[in-house]
Amino acid sequence: MALRKMTENDLKMVLDWRNSPSVRENMYTSHVIQWDEHQKWFEHIKDNPRFLWLIYEEIHPEGVVYFTNIDKQCRKAFWGFYAGDTKAIGIGMRIAYEAMQYAFNDLNLRKLNCEILAFNKVVINQHYKFGFKKEGVFRKDHCKDGEYIDVIRMGIFHDEWKSVEPIIARKICKIRNN
Fold first, then answer.
1. Considering the domain 2-177, what is its CATH architecture?
2. Which of 76, 132, 159, 163 could form a disulfide with 127 if both were Cys (CB 3.0 to 4.6 A apart)?
């Protein structure tokens, strides 16, 4: 897999991914995003070289990863990602692995943080498998469809990632060989 910066040519594909129910239901912004809103969003973020990346397997785009609140002095950031083809076996694991390699090797982060809506047990469990630790709960912090939902804060340090990275790499190899 490889990462490359998102371009205007990717906007339609990414909008389709982002508006799919399986992605939308797990995001802070869960309404159907219209084309003009999507274009304005891209204009706002496109010049940030570290913000939004497409993840590719050979020439096939697989998903999106983004890094926000990058603090160069403290060497930390937040991240998020979503898959384009949510039915592909192991896609979440492959995207997360590649993104974490980028975060710790290319961005030289010391710590990577994330926030996950508490009902999203699959993603929470995936983060645990990747070595993330639960750092807190923002109780009833996000309102979604009129309901207040807890937000789980998780984080991982570079050395914690290095201890679990070979295990994840072997799992990905097994998926690819099946």
1. 3-Layer(aba) Sandwich (3.40)
2. 132
